[in-house]
Amino acid sequence: MRAALLAALALLLAGCGFQLRGTADLPFDTLFIPGAGSGIGLDLKRNIQSGTRTRVVDDPKLAQAVLQFTEDVREKHILSLSGTGRVREYQLRQRVSFRVHDGKTSEYLPVSQIVLMRDFTFNDTEVLAKEAEEAQLYREMQYDMVQQILRRLSAATPPKPAVQ
């Protein structure tokens, strides 16, 4: 009975199209990421090196493609106030714009923007805990941002050669 249940579960799981995430195929062999020493650039560099066949290089002249961040903004907005005028909720936003080009005139990916938002409650008697929660939310947003950028990079199309 147990074996039949496991077999049925395995067939059901295989039939739904589930598969483990493998390596992403990027349409370029080498990539230069300016500012890859910190923040989202560093996380993106690590994910590309560990999850793709593309090499991240330190010299744009050696790169087949250049990922250029045009905007990376974090914002914190008040979402709601209590009756006494104290903040009860905040909304965190992170906005990143980027483009991928060949270092000359052709583009793999035109300027793209990703915006992520997270809401969290605030209690001024638990300031340290709420600051830690805010930092954790920003880390999670950055992780999500890197995953979305990787998906967009894998969907990028190689530039067409110039017609002469």
Give a summary of the structure in a few sentences.
The protein is α/β, with parallel strands linked by helices. The protein has three helices and five strands; from the N terminus they run αβαββββα.
Protein architecture, described:
- Helix 2 (39-51) crosses helix 3.
- It contains 3 helices and 5 strands.
- With 164 residues, the protein is of the alpha/beta class.
- A hairpin with a 5-residue loop joins strand 4 and strand 5 (107-121).
- The termini are far apart.
- The chain has a 5-stranded mixed β-sheet.
- It is flat, with a radius of gyration of 21 Å.
SSE arrangement:
Elements: H1 2-15, E1 30-32, H2 39-51, E2 55-57, E3 65-81, E4 87-101, E5 107-121, H3 127-154
Parallel strand pairs: 1-2, 1-3
Antiparallel strand pairs: 3-4, 4-5
Helix pairs in contact: 2-3
**Alpha carbon gap, first and last residue:** 70 Å
Order of neighbouring strands in the sheet with most strands: 2-1-3-4-5
Radius of gyration: 21 Å
Class of secondary structure makeup: alpha/beta
Care to count the β-strands?
A: 5
**How do the helices and strands follow one another from N- to C-terminus?**
HEHEEEEH
Helix percent band: 25-40%
Portion of residues in beta strands equals 25-35%
Broad shape: flat
Give the integer mean of the pLDDT values.
87
The poorly predicted ranges are none
The number of helical elements comes to 3
